[in-house]
Amino acid sequence: MKPILLHEDRLFPADEATRSVARSLYQTVKDLPIISPHGHTDPRWFAYDDNFGNATELFILPDHYVFRMLYSQGISLESLGIRRWDGGATEGDPKKIWQIFADHYYLFAGTPSRMWLDTVFKNVFGLSDMLCSENAMDYYEFITAELSKEAYKPRALMDRFNIELIATTEGALDTLEHHRAMQGSGWEKRVITTFRPDDIVDASREDFAANVALLGEITGENTTDWAGYLAAIRQRRQTFREHGATATDHGHPTALTADLSKAECQALFDKCLSGNASAAEQELFRGQMLTELAGMSIEDGMVMQIHPGAFRNHNNDVFTKFGRDKGADIPMQTEYVNALKPLLDKYGNDPRLNIILFTLDETVYSRELAPLAGHYPCLKLGPAWWFHDSPEGMLRYRHQVTETAGLFNTVGFNDDTRAFLSIPARHDVARRIDCRFLANMVVEHRISEDEAASLIKQLSYDLAKKAYKLGQE
Amino acid sequence: MKPILLHEDRLFPADEATRSVARSLYQTVKDLPIISPHGHTDPRWFAYDDNFGNATELFILPDHYVFRMLYSQGISLESLGIRRWDGGATEGDPKKIWQIFADHYYLFAGTPSRMWLDTVFKNVFGLSDMLCSENAMDYYEFITAELSKEAYKPRALMDRFNIELIATTEGALDTLEHHRAMQGSGWEKRVITTFRPDDIVDASREDFAANVALLGEITGENTTDWAGYLAAIRQRRQTFREHGATATDHGHPTALTADLSKAECQALFDKCLSGNASAAEQELFRGQMLTELAGMSIEDGMVMQIHPGAFRNHNNDVFTKFGRDKGADIPMQTEYVNALKPLLDKYGNDPRLNIILFTLDETVYSRELAPLAGHYPCLKLGPAWWFHDSPEGMLRYRHQVTETAGLFNTVGFNDDTRAFLSIPARHDVARRIDCRFLANMVVEHRISEDEAASLIKQLSYDLAKKAYKLGQE
Amino acid sequence: MKPILLHEDRLFPADEATRSVARSLYQTVKDLPIISPHGHTDPRWFAYDDNFGNATELFILPDHYVFRMLYSQGISLESLGIRRWDGGATEGDPKKIWQIFADHYYLFAGTPSRMWLDTVFKNVFGLSDMLCSENAMDYYEFITAELSKEAYKPRALMDRFNIELIATTEGALDTLEHHRAMQGSGWEKRVITTFRPDDIVDASREDFAANVALLGEITGENTTDWAGYLAAIRQRRQTFREHGATATDHGHPTALTADLSKAECQALFDKCLSGNASAAEQELFRGQMLTELAGMSIEDGMVMQIHPGAFRNHNNDVFTKFGRDKGADIPMQTEYVNALKPLLDKYGNDPRLNIILFTLDETVYSRELAPLAGHYPCLKLGPAWWFHDSPEGMLRYRHQVTETAGLFNTVGFNDDTRAFLSIPARHDVARRIDCRFLANMVVEHRISEDEAASLIKQLSYDLAKKAYKLGQE
């Protein structure tokens, strides 16, 4: 068996002079509280503070990074216990699943998943041997036993992880019951929601009309009418605000925006509700809604996050059998300069608007996003996202964005995860890479070590609080 | 207050062995004369040699790199004294503007503007503390006082900066009066013009027909006729040649070229003049004109520069209030392989043709531009441009271009600036980065140190003179 | 005269700690046998073992990397002795051609060609001075004399180069006579063919209908009928299998695939045969054929290689005078996510299917290819290809692919060359760069040195054998 690598200098560059600066910078931020302003943890955990289940339930079943790699090497999703939509049989023994995972842990060499997992195994559970076939069952049993203890309950981990604040993400129709359950406990200040209205905005979904009808029921508005539909959304936003939301999130296929007349909006909305809209009309409706939602953000102060560019559920067979979020989302080329223009023409110079742009298409960093964020007062750049939330991805992001947008048009780190236990590991990778990036600038005499010390605190903590308006209320 | 960083090893890589080679190479080129074959300085300066105005007029008002960053952080262009087209009020006190700039100088950490400005402040003015809120007024007054001295007149600075030759850029309708004023003084050999006919070629401009009419007046040709229009352009080119021009420049939205019949050309030209051409027809006309202008380059020997890919004046509101060149130009994806084919089919193998290609879309470096320049005898690659005229941008350029195009299909550095005082700083950055790139190849045993010494002189001086035909006439 | 650089540490990174790890890793793989699973050597060489001709015939005339660079600098293809299709005169004296090459050898500084050539000159021929004008004739005569010796016959070089296996590439109509000539000699196990059916699949070729007719003659099938055409292809695949083929190769302009009904296929095939198909229909036909060929791969187990994205013969004039493969192929933007979907919808989860994807568009590494290969069990990624088969290109590939696809979804190295003597040099570059990449991960504590040692053997040898099914039959 091999030891888990978790060298104190991991991810710092080889050059000793640079590494030394990176190490010093890291010392100043490694223990800062974690701000997690965008992610997908379950509010239920923090509301009721129940223990997590076994190792397999925690580390494999919900982690599409993990099972996509295993699937790519010919391991069936059934054998990994991924639940089938169609009721087909899947492996039910969590130990067998864990063994498969351990047998193939070598596949993750060089991936961020490997570093996140090793960090959790060592830093959260105190394990010291790297996971492999031989120790798989010891691992499973040890982790599962630990998970049943007080110290591994969600709220205890929140404290242990030094997470000052975490934002979950809920759909527009969500009851927010788990957030409501936290009210008065103090935890509602540490666990806030985010308003994600894709379900009532994306007319390509089979359940769009039903969702809009439900939106009407929930709000008492006439959501068959364009004005009523907008009023209902405003009402939902207000409810989300009451549960701490400072931001909205929009996961559209593209960054298209539009600026139609009211009459055009009503007609397009009618067509979308009727189920007869073409794909292009559905896309136009999503684009119009981004502009409408920007207008609402100006009214209520919520920060917009736009996450475009994924071809969702690319694998038909996997989608049919297993449903969404099964590691089969693939990035597509994404254009921003023309796509965002209608929204920017309407609201781009309004000092009350705050939009954070993300991308899965790294080619736009230097070509489109940095120039846009380096000009428009309403635009900031979210961190390297999803497939690019990785050491190399983050380095490419900083190297390609900074010279044009500077550092103050970025917003710190998002872990964007449902893997709660990995949150400290993910923030740690981001802090290390930012230390490395700044150390490199110091050693090349582009910024001073003093400046770097000030900047690393911004990147690790301050910018996230400011961009997501988390400090001032 | 902090000192200005301007370490003698700045921009060299951290690794000591590589840095040492870079340092040695740099010693051999740092004092070479500057060839500035493409830029936007004002010929008036060199013709009449008047002193520049105050610090704000020199460093803030004309520098879109500076005010785009400030604007992106919520500082109004009005407060920066940018003149409004519509006559709206703007800040008139240059000291107040300078103070805002100084207060926000930290925003430029990690950007090329910061390095250029620091270099000017320290090397040109002898300042040693970094600009900040506290020393803003001292800075302003010191710089403004210095600017009124003999030693800061344009011609004195040309000598001090060791600029052997500088090319300005004038529109096709320009009177060239300032260049004419230099004739006989000897300065006309150091300050030459460049022919940029966008104003008479781009039919999407509101003033296109008026410009073509004025072209007719200036030349005595019938510019309502296709043949007369071309003859008029030839005549203007000849006039520019007489004022030193060895190159033309073309700032089109795309790299599209076309090769239409004469009858099609006349019909398209008529439609463009009538104001009824569609956007696609205007684009086709620009494309046809690139091919026509290539033909003229074969006749008169002028080198063509093609600078495509900017979405100009993306911010409607800023354009309406403040006009062009206000930091709101955003790069777009740009295609060359299909776009250039009509021109290349017609003239691509003519040994008399020289075209220098630029891009704002770094994805084409390795995919399109290096393969094109590594095959077609008429094509060379201009240096990293605009947003990519930066340490990281230049490194990406060299790393992505060299293996396919080699170094001899590139043309040295362009500063492309109207910020005259920053010219030495910009060439210095380029020389340092090229030293670094070559030093890296030396240390990796890909070229010898002797070769690197020969190559760095090419990159710093020889290639620019050769590519722009500046030495042999 | 300068010595040839061929430092034992070439291509290793400057940092001494990293270099030391790279050096150690390299020691473990530098002498591993070469697996060359995809290339364009001539089977004739290995079948009859005749000596090669002179230095010019061997190093200049067939190497488009060499003459494209010379041509780009204004040297005519005629003067390089490239044979004209139209019978026009070209230089016939190999010594004059060699002298031109030597005079311009400096142009290759920083290119992979320079490293490959220097390696051959020094390691294969024992030359120690770098090629230049002065030693050109000595070089020519020495090399040409050596080539006439026993030790320089193809089979002797195969042994000397330690090439365990090499795959050639033949068109679907090839007689495979040279492979047949090897049968029974033992050499048929070391020299295998690859099935490349572009000539009978690409309806945009002038000879498409004639080729399909010839296919019918060869196989006895009625190839005017869709079913007969497919049966004929199956038959040819079987014949190729009998000459060792384990893989097919497809050099389409794009990665488009399609999944039409049989009736649509017959109609489209008819139209393509008639010569009346539009460019879009020809493209659709190629796309349909990729899907058909994937189906056949499932049947017979051959691995599909898809090499899309070249604009072939971009230079009209060069094509007209000199024909194909004259250094005028230029990469184009290439899309995979939508293009491959029809094929993947049909066969993407079949465990019997193996597809290796290549690209000339590096922007898809992190955005499309790594996510696709990191999910679909049938997809693996071929190495950096053609213009990107270079130190920088390979580093970009590893850095952009590994975090999402891991290392086990890649397939080792392809030399893809017709330049037989350069094969060891090319594999050596690949091994060095992979050592460097892994060493960097070791020094950054992302993998252990033990893991790196295991991985470098995979990347240098094992993965190629496994991906191309070369070991188990």
TrEMBL record, chains A, B, C:
Q: In which pathway does it act?
A: Carbohydrate metabolism; pentose and glucuronate interconversion
One Gene Ontology term of the biological-process aspect is: D-galacturonate catabolic process
Q: Which UniProt keywords apply?
A: Isomerase
The family database entries (InterPro entries) matched by this protein are listed as: Metal_Hydrolase (IPR032466), Uronate_isomerase (IPR003766)
**Enzyme Commission numbers on file:** 5.3.1.12
Pfam families per record: UxaC
Any single GO molecular-function term of the entry would be: glucuronate isomerase activity
Catalytic activity of the protein: D-glucuronate = D-fructuronate; aldehydo-D-galacturonate = keto-D-tagaturonate
Q: According to its UniProt record, which protein family does this protein belong to?
A: Belongs to the metallo-dependent hydrolases superfamily. Uronate isomerase family.
PANTHER family reported in the protein's UniProt record = URONATE ISOMERASE
Q: What is this protein called?
A: Uronate isomerase
Task: State the organism named in the record.
Answer: Alteromonas lipolytica
Which gene produces this protein? Answer: uxaC
